[in-house]
Amino acid sequence: MTDARTKRTQTLVAAAKAKSQAKLEAAEQAIRDLIKRSEPITFQAVQREAGVSHAFLYGHPDLRGRIERLRAQAHPIPAPAAPADDRSTLVLTLTSQITRLKKQHREEVQALRDALEQAHGENLDLRRELARRSGSTTPQAQAGIPC
Fold it and tell me: Sorting pLDDT into bands at 50, 70 and 90, what band is 130?
């Protein structure tokens, strides 16, 4: 019986190796087909194309490494510096907006001050004219200072 059992075991081991080799070849062919069709290389795409499980793909280090390399080539991971660039761009944009708004504010304030100065000048002229017409000779009235 041990001979029959050993023979069955050897037959099963050989069948398992053949099945594994067939799956490995199917996975390799799936990768080639995906590349030929310019489709993204992912574990799910290879699994679907070859009819193998994720566990099979992850269980074969060479196959796993190849899929990971091809996936990284198709979708390169952005460098960590990119978010910093985005932040610095945002900071520069906001800084220029603030600078522009400050300049606009200064110009508006200056225009208001000029208008106020002109109004004070006109007010002083009107007070002097009023004092002249009313005949008031007090120094305060002549200077335009209200009594």
Answer: very high
